[in-house]
From TrEMBL:
InterPro entries: A_deaminase_dom, Ado/ade_deaminase, Metal_Hydrolase. This is adenosine deaminase. It comes from Lysobacter korlensis. The keyword Hydrolase applies. Its EC number is 3.5.4.4.
Length: 373
């Protein structure tokens, strides 16, 4: 798959999608660095890079990420995490991250990252979280000064292979009133089910702390089952392979007839949001069972069946993308209009890890923004 450039932000309607309010629920901090920032931070620590200018480095990340394998895709993060090992670096990356979201029209973003991967420079877990929060708050102030309205929170991630789930869960709850809005469970999915961190999820449930779990990306229905039962996930990170529990019985001029299995039915009936990331899902091979092109993505099937689908970028650097671009690609591929794109944003507002009143305010902001188009 060839990833188009960042400039692709217009829907078939001709509307510049950067100008409409959007919500980003699945966006990794270490997957959204500016190439120029990587160059400068790498120079500070004498880290060799595969390219010595920003555009070449951007292209390198896009090509390396287009492997069809989540394991290979994750190797690109060796570089981004390497330059994020100091407080100053974390502040800068988080600040620019928010600036870039705001410039793309995002009004609420949840920024996920794994503090345990940023301790090699001597930071403690708490210091790392505090540095990112400083960067977020500065980025929000920058955006406001430039006429953009944005709110952002941290999703503190535990890496599933590291078995530090309880420690990271306790870290997240310590900062729940200082910028952290939820807990995430990520990393190599196959072979590392959420059940491995059941103690952490039990603790989070006892603290009434919201959880999203990467599931249904590099592994199938059993991973999703574990995310729901062991993780008590309120959202599924990607979750695209929930479509394995949807059997297409027949198709004709009147429509498509399907049978929905018990796991998929549970996810649909409880409106558990799917954090779908179209370009990333192609790059990692998450939709390999259905094909290799965006038209093969089960996004539209899930949408038409009434699942709470949301649109996300996953890693803007690796996919050379933005939320506006992802929406434009979907609109072009599935002939969506602005009303469809509004549904995706309202779904995200409903699924945000915020108090009900704040989610309702977000929904009103989305509706007002689309009405102005």
């Amino acid at each position: 798959m060839t990833v188009p450039s960042q400039e692709y932000v217009h829907a078939p309607t001709g509307v510049n999608l950067q100008g409409i309010p959007k919500i980003s629920l699945h966006d990794h901090l270490d997957g959204g660095l500016r190439p120029q920032t990587i160059l400068e931070l790498a120079d500070d620590i004498d880290l060799d890079l595969p390219a010595d200018d920003a555009e070449s480095l951007r292209e390198w990340f896009a090509v390396q990420s287009d492997s069809g394998s989540l394991v290979e895709y994750l190797k690109t993060f060796d570089i981004t995490t390497a330059v994020m090992q100091s407080s100053d670096a974390l502040v800068r990356v988080a600040r620019e991250f928010v600036q870039d979201l705001a410039a793309d029209g995002v009004v609420y973003g949840e920024i996920r990252w794994a503090p345990e991967q940023h301790l090699r420079g001597g930071l403690t877990l708490d210091e790392a979280v505090e540095a990112v929060q400083e960067g977020i708050e500065t980025g929000v102030s920058d955006a406001r000064a430039n006429g953009h309205r944005i709110r952002a929170g941290q999703l503190v991630t535990a890496m599933r292979h590291a078995d530090r789930g309880l420690e990271i869960a306790e870290l997240a709850t310590r900062h729940r009133y200082a910028g952290v809005v939820g807990f995430d469970f990520a990393g190599a999915e196959a072979g590392f089910p959420p059940s491995r961190a059941r103690t952490a999820f039990d603790y989070l449930a006892s603290e009434f702390f919201p959880v999203t779990v990467h599931a249904g990306e590099a592994d199938g229905l059993e991973s999703i089952r574990s995310a729901l039962l062991d993780g008590r996930a309120l959202r599924l990170g990607h979750g695209v392979r929930i479509a394995e529990d949807v059997k297409v019985e027949s198709e004709d001029d009147d429509g498509t007839y399907v049978t929905v299995g018990p796991i998929a039915q549970w996810v649909k009936d409880r409106e558990i949001a799917l954090e779908l990331s179209p370009s990333s899902n192609l790059q990692t091979g998450a939709i390999a069972a259905w094909g290799e092109d965006l038209i093969d993505h089960p996004f539209d099937l899930l949408y038409q069946l009434g699942f709470r689908v949301t649109v996300n970028t996953d890693n803007r650097l690796m996919s050379n993308t933005s939320l506006s671009r992802e929406l434009a690609l979907l609109a072009e591929t599935f002939d969506y209009d602005l009303s469809d794109l509004e549904v995706f944003q309202l779904n995200a507002a409903s699924a945000a890890f915020l108090p009900l009143e704040d989610r309702e305010e977000l929904a009103d902001l989305i509706t007002e923004g689309f009405e102005r188009v």
